[in-house]
Prior knowledge:
The protein is 43% helix and 21% strand. The chain is of the alpha+beta class. The chain has two domains: 18-123, Immunoglobulin-like; 127-139 and 183-293, Up-down Bundle (Four Helix Bundle (Hemerythrin (Met), subunit A)), CATH 1.20.120. The protein is elongated.
Amino acid sequence: MSVRWxxxxxxxxxxxxxxxxxxxxxxxxDSNKLLIGDQRNMQISVQGAxxxxxxxxxxxxxxxxxxxxxxxxxTQTATGIQKSLMFTVFDTGYIILDPLPITFxxxxxxxxxYTNDLALEVYPVIxxxxxxxxxxxxxxxxxxxxxxxxxxxxxxxxxxxIGIYLWRQKRSQAGDQIxxxxxPAHEIALEELSHLKGKKLWQQGDIKExxxxxxxxxxxxxxxxxxxxxxxxxxxxxxxxxxxxVRDMRSLEDLDQILNIADLIKFAKAKPSVDIHQEFMDKxxxxxxxxxxxxxxxxxxxxxx
Length: 305
């Protein structure tokens, strides 16, 4: 190459580096203030970058209890490229997130640009006088095939069980009928509640396990007694559906407290007073007694027998 071309080559290299130096990245959030565990939206925008984005390194942010819940792919805008993500933070206080490195690939070379730093104020959950935090709205995820897999498998097993039952019935002798005795739902629930009391979980400090088993027993009772899909429904859905069958306000209030406060203990890590566990056991037994199926056999029928 002739020596006279060297100045031109240096100018081209300088211009390319200038373009790269002018590349800017910026992080913006919809709000810098949030409660611990809350989710916020963030937008990362890049202007003036050459090549294509290769990776975004969140390692330094994860060390500060930052977690990415979901993120979108890069999209082209009028001024550059951008992507959106949803995040949450599992620590409290005033948090400064370091500039986020974004790597670009340009041919066989890579280069990195950095966003602005980001300040977040993360507050703890403020509990009321009972020591329990208020319920948060449920964030529903879109239904996908993986969510349906367990239900499809259940349907297949049920159909298989029905087929086996009909096949055995066909082969059985006409006089060999087996009477299946179905225990009342309240008997099963009261027996399980008694067994739970005997385990003394909350007395041993296993509060979350105790509340989980207590609400499971009540949810299963609601399924067996009222044919509700209580094990698969949210607390709000259960409380809405049960009003069609239970009119007693005291029973409804007891059920509301048992399910809602148990959710707070399991998911919000609330720490209620000690006497609330025995109180909820008493309310659970009372709810079962108040809503059990009453026998329809009259005294005349008993005498005839």
